[in-house]
Design goal:
By secondary structure, the chain is mainly alpha-helical. It has one domain. The chain contains 13 helices and no strands. Helix 4 packs across helix 11.
């Protein structure tokens, strides 16, 4: 299968699901849309928990030591969070969402803008921070098949229905984030010629799981965790694994 096909299918699934959600959104009361969002938040929390359990991976413990995996994830979040906050990633993502809202949705009211931005930010994070995004895109680029991205496409399509019913056009704009993130990772896979070692992937998966906890807290309206500022942690995690393994 040609590299990039998985991302193309993912985009089409999000667009199709988003359009269905927009049609349903006009017919669903606010309370129903909030319940749908709460349900997605709970499911996201479940997925986050299963991903975060990768911190117990035997290969990771063997590489960095039995007591180090949690410290690696903690260090990745701290270093990544500091880096992201200095780069103002959360602010930049929200600004991009606002710019897209003005160009694509045409609304100028503060409520419309906030709804578009929230849909764009939350959907972008949901679609692009899970382990399937990283593993699927890398494997797609390496020529190992797009099965993981096809599975992710099905999940994202159903999620887009619910998100678009709640947040509107911002969910469809998140396709641009999918193109950039998954397209870039696919190109990285093509360049690497091999996947990351299992221990490094486990660290990335565990770190991504904690980022999804932050997304779930936003969906459940518990706390607006600046998840975008924490995204560099996904890059820092495998680097820390390599550093700890080198000094052992």
């Amino acid at each position: 299968m040609v590299p990039g096909v998985g991302t193309l299918v993912n985009i089409l699934a999000v667009l199709a699901g988003g359009l269905v959600g927009l049609l349903l959104g006009n017919r669903l009361p606010v309370r129903t849309r909030e319940v749908v969002t709460d349900g997605l938040g709970l499911v996201t929390l479940l997925i986050a928990g299963t991903s975060a359990m990768a911190v117990l991976d035997d290969g990771l413990a063997e590489t960095v030591g039995d007591s180090a995996p949690v410290l690696v994830v903690l260090g990745a979040l701290l270093v990544g969070g500091i880096t992201g906050s200095l780069l103002r990633l959360e602010q930049r993502v929200e600004s991009l969402g606002g710019w897209l809202q003005q160009r694509l949705a045409g609304g100028h009211g503060s409520v419309d803008r906030q709804r578009f931005v929230e849909g764009f930010v939350v959907s972008s994070l949901i679609f692009c921070t899970g382990p399937l995004t990283i593993l699927g895109s890398l494997n797609d680029g390496l020529g190992n098949g797009a099965e993981q991205l096809l599975l992710k496409s099905a999940l994202d399509g159903f999620a887009a229905i619910a998100f678009a019913a709640s947040f509107g056009w911002g969910v469809l704009a998140a396709c641009l984030t999918v193109v950039v993130v998954q397209g870039s990772l696919t190109l990285v896979g093509v360049a690497l010629g091999d996947v990351l070692p299992d221990a490094h992937l486990a660290a990335v998966t565990a770190t991504g799981g904690l980022l999804l906890v932050g997304v779930a807290l936003r969906l459940l309206r518990v706390r607006d965790v600046p998840v975008a500022d924490l995204l560099p942690a996904l890059v820092v995690a495998p680097l820390l694994v390599q550093l700890v393994a080198a000094v052992r």
